[in-house]
Amino acid sequence: RPTIDRELLESLPNLKVVGNSGVGVDHLDLKMISNFGVKVTNTPRAVADPTADIGMALMLASARRLLEGCQIAVSPDTKYFAVDWLGVEVTRATLGIIGMGSIGYKVAQRARAFDMRILYHNRNRRRKEEEEAVGAHYCEKMEDLLQQSDFVMLVVNLTPETHKLIGKKELGLMKPTATLINISRGAVVDQDALVEALQNKVIRAAALDVTYPEPLPRDHPLLKLNNVIITPHIGTATVQALRMMAEEAIANILAVLNGQPIPSEVL
Amino acid sequence: AGPDLKVISTMSVGFDHLALEEIKKRGIRVGYTPDVLTDATAERSVALLLAACRRLPEALEQVKNAGQARGMCATGDGSAGMAAGPSSLSLLGQAVARRLKPFGVKKFLYTGSRPRPESDAEFEAEFVPLTRLAEESDFVVVTCALTPATQGMCNKDFFSKMKKTSVFINTSRGAVVNQEDLYNALAQGQIAVAGLDVTTPEPLPTDHPLLSLKNCVILPHIGSATYATRSTMAVLAANNLLAGLRGEPMPHELLL
């Protein structure tokens, strides 16, 4: 997709709206675009379910060592399946969700069906009924969540406040048996600190759908560690989601052009 | 084993590997480990379903090798709005259904020897014949026990009735599936993708055609493979054995 920079905006004096496909807008200079009198819209509704699904998929795949298992199942060197080859259980474990927006809440709904104990940290506390519906406990201090969780899932958007939200200190607070799952943006995590934490077994493992940059340079240490799984930003890579994002983006664009209420304008 | 064999204690819930007639004839008692592994195995079934439909193994390959993460459409089919069909509403089937429900599954269908009204209400699940389950499901999850009735149940006929976009998950026993028919169904695009935690045999021979398919995710029978569950199973199996040797009631005896 094209980079929305000053040069592009100056060349399009009649531009009314930048309709983003996807919910993240960290790649857009919102202030600059606004100065040109151009509106920005995104697609929060279309991304929520498939992204929550991928968060769960990554958590389960990491805990139960699915990718390793696949390799063993097909390897020509496998003579028998070792009975002492084990993973860790997701059922009844503690999940700490950092960022309880629509996607985070959908993750909580799914995790609840696995009898997980759910902690969450968010800028604002959710309503009591919402918390009770998924059995989620609010942690005002992120440190409390980090110390108690078996699985920590990052579901925040990327802003100056969340840049490198998880660094050496935060990783050190996590249990050595814990897993970090990132379905937000790569830059929410201090990647160098993560590499060190994984190498020194400060945490058990990580599962990332997002990195910085994407893709990682081919010689990056994250690609060599055996306690990390990485997927190529496939949070919304489903047939349904792609169609729904396009539909949502178009609906937003048409609303702007027709002077109607805009379903999801980014302010 | 010798003629003094009194007890067989299996660390599993499946007992298809035991020659029950012979065992009964010799008056040998059998202990097994039901229930304690239901959570771990249900979790594994959902994990496998997600890994298969979101194409995780392929995605991982892409990240490590191609270096072209973007622009390659790794489109799997999301699970919202699908009809899942756990093939039997046993404890395992229910545990799987419970976990799938919040992913937005619109309808649950199930089949088996008889309807289970006491268990299906929770999911508003409809009891249907096997053929309808194949025809109407977007996700088919096989969770039944291996018996003479279920042996080879998933065969050419079954796969031909499934949707082209559907996902087939087997977490029961390899022999419930006719593997040659499954291979053909996958290779010819009769179904979209399969995920198997069980095969015949285990492991599959290295030249087996199923191993060559990109749309078949295979796991090495890890249903109950967690530290917590295997520990519980081990203790239970030991207690079953000891009780059997002492001539006492077992925590979980398989009635022959």
From TrEMBL, chain A:
Keyword Transferase belongs to the record: no
Lineage: Eukaryota, Metazoa, Chordata, Craniata, Vertebrata
SUPFAM superfamilies per the UniProt record, alphabetical: Formate/glycerate dehydrogenase catalytic domain-like, NAD(P)-binding Rossmann-fold domains
PANTHER family on file: 2-HYDROXYACID DEHYDROGENASE-RELATED (PTHR10996), 2-KETOGLUCONATE REDUCTASE (PTHR10996:SF149)
Similarity field: Belongs to the D-isomer specific 2-hydroxyacid dehydrogenase family.
InterPro entries linked: D-isomer_2-hydroxyacid_DH, D-isomer_2_OHA_DH_cat_dom, D-isomer_DH_CS1, D-isomer_DH_NAD-bd, NAD(P)-bd_dom_sf
D-isomer specific 2-hydroxyacid dehydrogenase catalytic domain residues: 3-266
CDD domains noted in UniProt: GDH
GO molecular function terms listed in the Swiss-Prot or TrEMBL record: glyoxylate reductase (NADPH) activity; hydroxypyruvate reductase [NAD(P)H] activity; NAD binding
Domain of life, source organism: Eukaryota
GO cellular component annotations of the record: cytosol
Protein name: Glyoxylate reductase/hydroxypyruvate reductase
Positions of the D-isomer specific 2-hydroxyacid dehydrogenase NAD-binding domain: 56-235
The species this protein was found in: Buceros rhinoceros silvestris
Protein keywords: Oxidoreductase
One Pfam family, short name: 2-Hacid_dh
TrEMBL record, chain B:
InterPro entries, alphabetized: D-isomer_2-hydroxyacid_DH, D-isomer_2_OHA_DH_cat_dom, D-isomer_DH_CS, D-isomer_DH_NAD-bd, NAD(P)-bd_dom_sf
PROSITE patterns in the record: D_2_HYDROXYACID_DH_3 (PS00671)
Domain D-isomer specific 2-hydroxyacid dehydrogenase NAD-binding, residue spans: 46-223
Keywords on record: Oxidoreductase, Pyruvate
Span of domain D-isomer specific 2-hydroxyacid dehydrogenase catalytic: 3-253
CDD domains: GDH
Superkingdom: Eukaryota
Regions that span the bilayer: none
GO cellular component entries: cytosol
GO molecular function, one term: hydroxypyruvate reductase (NADH) activity
PANTHER family: 2-HYDROXYACID DEHYDROGENASE-RELATED, GLYOXYLATE REDUCTASE_HYDROXYPYRUVATE REDUCTASE
Family recorded in the similarity comment: Belongs to the D-isomer specific 2-hydroxyacid dehydrogenase family.
Protein's name according to its UniProt entry: Glyoxylate reductase/hydroxypyruvate reductase
Organism in which the protein naturally occurs: Buceros rhinoceros silvestris
